[in-house]
Amino acid sequence: MKPVLLAVLASVCFAAVESPVSLASLRAVEASINDKFRSGVNDPYDLLGTARGTYLDGYGAVFSVEMNLVLVSPLNLSPFKPALADGEVAAMHDRKTRKVETLKAEMRSLMLGASKTLTGLPANERIVMEAFLFNYKWENSRDLPRRIVMTASKQQLLDAAAKKLSGTEFAKLFDEQEL
Predict the structure, then answer these.
(1) This prediction's pTM
(2) pLDDT of 108-156, one tens digit each?
(3) For 98-117, b where at least 16 C-beta lie within 10 A, e where not — what string?
(4) Quick one: which of 33, 45, 111, 131 has the fewest CB in 10 Å?
(5) DSSP secondary-structure letter at 50?
(6) In whole angstroms, what is the distance from residue 93 CA to residue 23 CA?
(7) Coil, strand or helix: which one is 30?
(8) Is residue 121 classed as helix, strand or coil in its secondary structure?
(9) Which letter does DSSP use for residue 78 in this model?
(10) CA neighbours within 13 Å on the CB side: how many for 130?
(11) Could you state, in order of their start, the residue ranges of all structural domains in the chain?
């Protein structure tokens, strides 16, 4: 009788505690990130992998994605043309510079959506999104960030959705870093 009782107690003590944030909800946010960044019809991003998310107990949900701000067509680069001309490099830098603010706005929007999708995430915990930005060695990457990190609490995001804040007011809710 004692060995059975000990076995039951051991299994209860060592049983995995389920995360408040389901794997399904993390996957749903990952899918929305991938869809959003792949859907730019006129000037798409070049995703260099799929978005990844994880839940850190007591802190929140963290999502990361690696991308090039502009899609470099295989027609532009080939073994016969391994780099772009100076004018093309300058034009690409200008496009990337303009797209940084667009990317930030899209990240904020995705985080707002994530606050509604991650129903198990406690309101006091955070949602974090990090974009790793890729540049070729031949590019002019001066003044372009290598990473953009944004964070906000779930409650701030839910409150913002209820109040329907302006774009400027909404942007102020986020802690943002360009690294």
Answers:
(1) 0.86
(2) 999 999 999 999 999 999 999 999 999 988 889 999 999 999 999 999 9
(3) ebbeebbebbbebbbbbbeb
(4) 45
(5) -
(6) 38
(7) helix
(8) coil
(9) B
(10) 12
(11) 19-178
State whether residue 74 is helix, strand or coil.
coil
CA distances from 2 to 8, 10, 15 (A): 10, 12, 20
**Whether the Cβ atoms of residue 99 and residue 32 lie closer than 8 Å to each other:** no
Q: How far apart are CA 76 and CA 145, in angstroms?
A: 24
Would you tell me how many other CB atoms lie within 10 Å of the CB of residue 163?
A: 10
Return d(Cα 45, Cα 99) in angstroms, integer: 9
Instruction: Give 5's pLDDT tier (boundaries 50, 70, 90).
Output: very low
Q: What number of residues does the chain have?
A: 179
